Amino acid sequence: MKIYGALLSPFVRKVVVAAREKDVAHELVAVSPGSSRPEFVEASPFGKIPALRDDDFTLADSSAILHYIEAKHPAPALIPADPQARGKAIWWEEFGDTVLGATTLKILFNRLVGPKLRKLPFDENVALQGEAELPAILAHLEASAPDEGWLAGGFSIGDIAVASALRSLTYVGHGPDAAARPRTSAWYTRVTSRPAWQAMEVDEAVMAARLGIA
Ligand SMILES: N[C@@H](CCC(=O)N[C@@H](CS)C(=O)NCC(=O)O)C(=O)O
């Protein structure tokens, strides 16, 4: 399958790590949001990354893509069967995408992507707003991070989504801080030490070096 996007995006990283966890063969096709490349436009009608192509099947949105991959490649499960564990895994994915992720994008787009990488309009006030939101969000994660293991029992899409957003924050000076948030930091280290994450990081390092943001 083809995954369209760039590993700077927490949503693209989520999908690539999930594919690697399941050992699903995939090709990451480098595409920026809004690309007019026809095969990308067909897969992502609103121009957002990631998008997926699996033979003649196309799909946009990281959560939709993760559900597709989970259904097609059930093992190892990244969405738990147990009702409470499943609810928590989806909650943490949602937190990663729409709470931490949304705040992350305010900072990432207005400090790095807009001004430095893509020369797009940006607004420093939005970045400052994101920074003002961050402490309460990170405090919730620190209070919830488990002493050992994962956010929703077994390793899940929740861990992948939240760690992916934290990884993007490292590019704008807000990476995990072991002194300030030791539980989050220890959990993040567990996630990012997994072979699937490490394999993704090799590709992410290449991208970061190419963009001069390593
Ligand atoms: N809910 C979507 C969000 C995707 C998204 O917002 N991606 C960003 C890049 S990190 C994007 O493409 N932004 C361009 C835009 O909003 O036009 C998902 O989970 O895939």
Automatic annotation (TrEMBL):
Q: Spell out the protein name for this chain.
A: glutathione transferase
Q: Which residues form the GST N-terminal domain?
A: 1-77
Pfam family name, one: GST_C_2
Q: Enumerate the CDD domains for this protein.
A: GST_C_family
Signal peptide segment? none
Record's keyword annotation contains Ubl conjugation: no
Listed InterPro entries = Glutathione-S-Trfase_C-like, Glutathione-S-Trfase_C_sf, Glutathione_S-Trfase, Glutathione_S-Trfase_N, Thioredoxin-like_sf
EC code(s) of this entry: 2.5.1.18
Assigned keywords, A-Z? Transferase
In this chain the GST C-terminal domain maps to 82-211
- Superkingdom is Bacteria
Q: What class of enzyme is it?
A: transferase
